[in-house]
Amino acid sequence: MYIQVLKSKIHRVTVTEANLNYIGSITLDEDLMEAAGIIEGERVFIVDNHNGERFDTYVIAGERGSGVVCLNGAAARRVQPGDIVIIMSYAMMTPDEARSHKPCLVFPDTATNRLVH
What pLDDT does residue 24 have? Predict the structure, then answer.
């Protein structure tokens, strides 16, 4: 049996754009993706702290160091620029694997969406 377990979380980033006229997805700064171990095309779950919306989409790599967090397509209707969101990815693993698994938690600067060193 496999269970879904939190793989990584980017905690409290600010939405920089919402682009309704795009195919779909979330565009993320590659620095954030790398820090969280998220790859392009990976399914992620989004929680909007301002309005309570919860939805999933897939990731497109944005410019490294830009701080971009852009919801595209239909997801753009669920957020507004300036909203604070949490981005989570999950992995399938056995309960034994899950017991020793430690998720990657990323806490960027909320004002700039850049990694704090």
Answer: 76
Q: Catalytic: 2?
A: no
Q: What angle do CA 69, 72, 75 make, to 5 degrees?
A: 100
CA distances, 92 to each of 2, 6, 28, 64, 101 (Å)? 6, 9, 23, 28, 11
Catalytic pick from 2, 8, 22, 25? 25
Which strands sit side by side in the sheet containing 17-19, from one edge to the other? 17-19, 69-72, 25-29, 54-62, 43-48, 84-93, 3-14, 104-106
Cβ atoms within 10 Å of 47's Cβ, excluding its own: 14
pLDDT of residue 117: 74
List the catalytic residue out of 2, 8, 22, 58: 58
pLDDT tens by residue, 50-108: 999 999 999 999 999 999 999 999 999 999 999 999 999 999 999 999 999 999 999 99
Q: Which domains does the chain have, with CATH numbers?
A: 3-100 (2.40.40.20)
